Write a sequence for this structure.
């Protein structure tokens, strides 16, 4: 028996199995393994502050913390709790209306050499009308709430802090990713080392999903292709 005839079905089955495995992708959570615990997944380490310049003194300005102070973030590497309370709503309405009409009527009452009976049928009348009406309504609403702990990655010369944080949660074949960054005024930090996102400047919030749930809400590549080529 020809071995090629036996190998062909086996290769076809292997290709179908490989295709099924490719379609059954499981998104991974971007975690950094700890050297001390290679089998465990831990969060990414916080940004390390720059190495202090040795001055020969015990006091170091970049590491100084008073004995009596509340636990609020103020140095690179400190963490701060961000209460995300973003709510944006906008509505725009526009209405246009144009109406124009006209009418024309004329007749001939007398002409030399023409009888009045014929003149009664000589006349013309015309009218025109043009109407335009347009309406437009645009509404946008965005409501986002949540909590994330961010890390101070930079302290600006004016004392403001640039923070950034990321949270990834993987459940079965789905991964939810939440990223946040912004600029915080230390005076806006409330007791308990927390701050509202509405009091943070240059806020960047990103919430995306990876996996089966996210793919079910996106248009397929073939549909996007035909939608791009459609003239209307």
């Amino acid at each position: 028996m020809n071995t090629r005839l036996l190998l062909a079905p086996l290769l076809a089955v292997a290709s179908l199995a490989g295709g099924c495995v490719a379609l059954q992708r499981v998104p991974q959570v971007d975690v950094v393994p700890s050297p001390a615990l290679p089998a465990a997944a831990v969060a990414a380490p916080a940004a390390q502050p720059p190495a202090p310049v040795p001055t020969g003194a015990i006091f170091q300005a970049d590491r100084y913390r008073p004995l009596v102070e509340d636990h609020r973030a103020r140095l690179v590497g400190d963490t701060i709790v961000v209460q995300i309370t973003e709510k944006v709503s906008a509505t725009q309405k526009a209405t246009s209306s144009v109406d124009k009409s006209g009418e024309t009527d004329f007749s001939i009452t007398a002409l030399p050499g023409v009888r009045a009976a014929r003149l009664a049928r000589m006349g013309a009348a015309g009218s025109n009308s043009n109407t335009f009406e347009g309406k437009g309504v645009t509404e946008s609403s965005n409501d986002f709430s949540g909590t994330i702990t961010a890390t101070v990655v930079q302290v600006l010369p004016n004392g403001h802090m640039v923070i950034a944080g990321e949270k990834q949660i993987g459940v079965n074949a789905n991964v939810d990713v939440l990223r946040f960054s912004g600029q915080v005024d230390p005076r806006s930090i409330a007791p308990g080392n927390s701050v509202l996102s509405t009091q943070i400047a240059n806020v960047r919030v990103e919430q995306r999903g990876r996996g089966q749930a996210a793919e079910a809400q996106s248009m397929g590549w073939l549909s996007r292709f035909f939608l791009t080529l459609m003239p209307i």
